[in-house]
Amino acid sequence: MNLILGVPKEIIGGEKRVGIVPESLAKLTSLGFEIRVEKDAGREAGFLDLDYEAHGAKIVSGAQELYSAADVIVKVERPEQHPEGGKHELEMMKKGALLVCFMAPLNYPELSKKAAQTGVDVLSMNDIPRITRAQRMDALSSQTNLAGYKAVLMGANALRKIFPLLMTAAGTISPARVVILGAGVAGLQAIATARRLGAVVEVSDVRPAVKEQVESLAESTSSLLRMKPWRAKAVMPKKHPRNIYRSNRSC
């Protein structure tokens, strides 16, 4: 008997992603899974029910039907109280089932306790180790990469001027100045995106090791990218001596 893998619709407000896209179903079905997808689960992400059906999935009309039958549930966000029936998503799953999602158990320890009480096993994608053997499962880095890209686009959209230098007969518009705090996975993508949009980018990070990665993004336009040391603490007092203020400005 094949294991049933369920893909529910996300219920947390603003979440438009879906746990599995149609293109991934062929590999899962070849491994012996029977795929069931909740109706309209992928609509907000741009995938119709017809797309899933074309790749061998069965569309299920209700969440309760999906959760109660599935041996594995794959979703994006942590489990929450479901509006359908008023039950918690963990309570809707059968005992011994596996939930795969970004649960962040250290941030939500109560979910770990609830999973233990309901007999549900959880694979939290937040805790996949960033090692060579686990690279294919590193969904957190892929989503963080997208977050860095999207953050710059949102900033550009909110800014009251354009990012690049613009010289016209009517005058010159100076490029926008963008400061990236932290050059991790999201920060490096934010740097690359801001630079492609034509901004003057400054980077601040406490780790000397990332300097080489930052500089590698500036091979073609090194004049538009500068690495700066960390200039201030995360929390500054409301009142501080004038000499400290001058010291921070001079960095």
Brief summary:
The chain is an alpha/beta fold and about 250 residues long.
Give the percentage of residues in beta strands: 15-25%
Instruction: Tally the beta strands.
Output: 11
What count of domains describes the coordinates? 2
Q: Enumerate how many helices there are, as a single number.
A: 9
List the keywords.
single chain; Rossmann fold; 2 domains; 9 helices; disordered C terminus
Write up this protein:
- The chain has 251 residues and is of the alpha/beta class.
- The protein has two domains: 3-127, 3-Layer(aba) Sandwich (Rossmann fold), CATH 3.40.50; 137-250, Rossmann fold, CATH 3.40.50.720.
- The chain contains nine helices and eleven strands.
- A six-stranded parallel β-sheet has the order 3-2-1-4-5-6. A three-stranded parallel β-sheet has the order 9-10-11. A two-stranded antiparallel ribbon has the order 7-8.
- Helix 6 (139-158) runs parallel beside helix 7.
- The radius of gyration is 23 Å and the shape is elongated.
- The protein starts with a strand and ends with a helix.
Q: How are the secondary structure elements laid out?
A:
Blueprint: E1 3-7, H1 25-30, E2 33-38, H2 49-54, E3 58-60, H3 63-69, E4 72-74, H4 89-92, E5 98-101, H5 109-118, E6 121-124, H6 139-158, E7 166-168, E8 171-173, E9 177-181, H7 185-196, E10 200-204, H8 211-216, E11 225-228, H9 242-250
Parallel strand pairs: 1-2, 1-4, 2-3, 4-5, 5-6, 9-10, 10-11
Antiparallel strand pairs: 7-8
Helix pairs in contact: 6-7
